[in-house]
């Protein structure tokens, strides 16, 4: 290519890099703002978004998640946008490094999720089952979340109805939650064993496997965007040496 064509290509890629990362920066700022709002004024959030937010999502966890994701996107967007605008090799290399770390972490998480599904089930059983026994029926938010999950997914507990044996709920009501008996009452041990409603962990795994194509496509799209961002940042970084 002629020097003019190379310069035009460099300018075009630089502008695209700035616009792309500006969008990321603004998205991160929005998520960070929403996360702080949810953390500071959770009641207003619940009033606006209604029952879904209170029954399925735990506000504290959502706020922290939004704050972390928003902060990461802010950093990435700033490094990419400002680095391209100022043609800073240092900022471009930092952008490349941050995106690369995130990409490696995502790949590692995907591999671990595929390889250690059984281990994840064991760990979740050790952590979640005691909470079900202790908090289900006592903590309104926790109970609402599990009721919504079990009703929507058509499941019972994490593994099955035995997760509620010797639980607070069973001691108070002398029965299992109705989703464990396919919404039939009274949900005693005989009916629960007969209905054999599967645990939520298995049901969610089956749902993920059923939609593996969609999930894989989304993951591949995100990975492709990250690889493209790294390639563009490295292109700009290398081209700066030639200017």
From TrEMBL:
Membrane-related topology note: Multi-pass membrane protein
Keyword Transport appears in the UniProt entry: no
GO CC terms: lysosomal membrane; plasma membrane
Database matches in Gene3D superfamilies: Tetraspanin
Disulfide bridge map: 155-200, 156-181
UniProt keyword Glycoprotein, yes or no: yes
Superkingdom of origin organism: Eukaryota
CDD domains assigned to the protein according to its UniProt record, in alphabetical order: uroplakin_I_like_LEL
Localization (cell): Lysosome membrane; Membrane
Keyword set, alphabetical order: Disulfide bond, Glycoprotein, Lysosome, Membrane, Transmembrane, Transmembrane helix
Transmembrane segments: 12-38, 58-79, 91-116, 214-238
Subunit-structure text: Interacts with SLC19A2. Interacts with NTRK1/TRKA.
Family, as annotated: Belongs to the tetraspanin (TM4SF) family.
Protein function: Structural component of specialized membrane microdomains known as tetraspanin-enriched microdomains (TERMs), which act as platforms for receptor clustering and signaling. Participates thereby in diverse biological functions such as cell signal transduction, adhesion, migration and protein trafficking. Regulates neuronal differentiation in response to NGF by facilitating NGF-mediated activation of NTRK1/TRKA receptor tyrosine kinase and subsequent downstream signaling pathways. Plays a role in the inhibition of TNFalpha-induced apoptosis.
PANTHER family found in the cross-reference section: TETRASPANIN, TETRASPANIN-1
Protein name as catalogued: Tetraspanin
Organism whose genome encodes this protein: Alaudala cheleensis
